[in-house]
Amino acid sequence: MSAPFIASTATDTDRIVADAEAAVERIVAARTAIARVIFGQESVVERALITVLAGGHGLLVGVPGLAKTKLVETMGTVLGLSERRIQFTPDLMPSDILGSEVLEQATDGTRAFRFVRGPVFAQLLMADEINRASPRTQSALLQAMQERHVTVAGQRHDLPEPFHVLATQNPLEQEGTYPLPEAQLDRFLLQIDVHYPDRESERRILLETTGAEEARAEPVLDPAEIIALQRLVRRVPVGESVVESILDLVRSARPDSGVGRHGKAIAWGPGPRASQALMLTVRARALAQGRLAPSLDDVRALAEPVLQHRMALTFAARADGVTIRDVIADLTGRIG
Length: 336
What we know:
Blueprint: E1 5-6, H1 10-35, H2 42-53, E2 58-61, H3 68-78, E3 83-87, H4 94-98, E4 99-105, E5 111-117, E6 124-128, H5 135-147, E7 149-152, E8 155-158, E9 164-169, H6 182-185, E10 190-193, H7 199-209, H8 223-235, E11 238-239, H9 240-252, E12 266-268, H10 272-288, H11 296-307, E13 312-313, H12 315-319, H13 324-332
Parallel strand pairs: 2-9, 2-10, 3-6, 6-9
Antiparallel strand pairs: 1-11, 4-5, 7-8, 12-13
Helix pairs in contact: 2-10, 9-10, 9-11, 10-11, 11-13
């Protein structure tokens, strides 16, 4: 008979409970501070916070004007992280992101190379319209995301801790873009879809952002607290039923799984990294909502943002009007 929880002992569980209760108050304070500036995007804010708490990177997908840039700026301030922004364009070079070596001459006439750090050396980096840069430039950033360091002229330069990338992508204007390859999309923990606000939220935006005074973000956390929270997320116990549901979900989203109405519609599906992403994010979501262990509802809530950029459908399925969301909705409906 399997144990009810994994990666946890009785003593460790008591310690986790105490740490989690202290952490929840700080996380709620951070969410409240972000909500004072970002209106009508509660789900987006929650998923962006989950991305950081789980120690990963997020891909924000939405049309222009939905406060994606404002969200990253606000999160940088509230979380106490140094924040930089890069506007991706077709002529952007890897050195514009990573940095480069420059030749300097000292007063005594000697010359030496000095490394000038690029904007990637930030704790929270916004990669704006990442699909507008060339594949070479994209891969330079995505390698830094994966390895947490850059190598220039044979020298390794570690990135700051914590290090997170929130990239944006416009789903409308695809002319002149370089879509991210599947292997690179897999580096993003979540794909966060940013939708239009509802009427009441848009009314609030109108009234509160066009007056003489505008709400400003205030620092709540600091980098050391963020790192501590990320370590706490990895210690949150996970029930056996949640583990099994994650395995069932990810494995059923692969070709020829034979599960669901759209089983034959899948051209390729998620690998083990998707399972890892779900394990981390369900823990982070539970903690962010003040719970001490994730539930099946967390798996259902995060299935789409974890899986949708890690799957593709066959040509025949797309011709029939089947979407990835249809497939994921069918599979998540079988959980529990």
